[in-house]
Amino acid sequence: MASDPEKKQRELMLPVSRIRMIMKSSPETESIGQESVPLIAKATELFIQHLIRKALLRSKDGQHVTYGDLANIVQGIERYEFLQDIVPSKITYQQYLEMMAKSEVDEDIP
């Protein structure tokens, strides 16, 4: 019979081994408790579900979430500011060129 932690790990959708690898990659992490990895995995799953529900409410058809829906949530709600580098708003190539030209001009100004 499987122990309770093993059963809980099978119920998770995110791979525990990947979560452990990500946690170990942090320079501030010295050791990782056996119980913490499934808890972090479950918390991450719940956060993703919450974010998707928010995006679904703002989606055009209410049934499909697009990248733009997620980006709008991240850009529009202060609570999700920490995700702005991961889920940036889409821009056109022309907008990118204009931004790069402006940054070059700004660098030339002493």
Automatic annotation (TrEMBL):
GO terms for cellular component: CHRAC. Keywords: Acetylation, Coiled coil, DNA-binding, Nucleotidyltransferase, Nucleus, Phosphoprotein, Transferase. It comes from the Eukaryota. It is found in: Nucleus. InterPro entries: CBFA_NFYB_domain (IPR003958), Histone-fold (IPR009072), Transcr_DNA_Rep_Reg (IPR050568). The keyword Glycosyltransferase does not apply. GO terms for molecular function: DNA binding; nucleotidyltransferase activity; protein heterodimerization activity. Residues 14-56 form the Transcription factor CBF/NF-Y/archaeal histone domain. Pfam families: CBFD_NFYB_HMF. CDD domains: HFD_CHRAC1-like. Forms a complex with DNA polymerase epsilon subunit POLE3 and binds naked DNA, which is then incorporated into chromatin, aided by the nucleosome remodeling activity of ISWI/SNF2H and ACF1. Does not enhance nucleosome sliding activity of the ACF-5 ISWI chromatin remodeling complex. Heterodimer with POLE3; binds to DNA. Component of the CHRAC ISWI chromatin remodeling complex at least composed of SMARCA5/SNF2H, BAZ1A/ACF1, CHRAC1 and POLE3; the complex preferentially binds DNA through the CHRAC1-POLE3 heterodimer and possesses ATP-dependent nucleosome-remodeling activity. Within the complex, the heterodimer with POLE3 interacts with SMARCA5/SNF2H; the interaction is direct and enhances nucleosome sliding activity by the SMARCA5/SNF2H and BAZ1A/ACF1 interaction. Within the complex, the heterodimer with POLE3 interacts with BAZ1A/ACF1; the interactions are direct. This is Chromatin accessibility complex protein 1. It comes from Darwinula stevensoni.
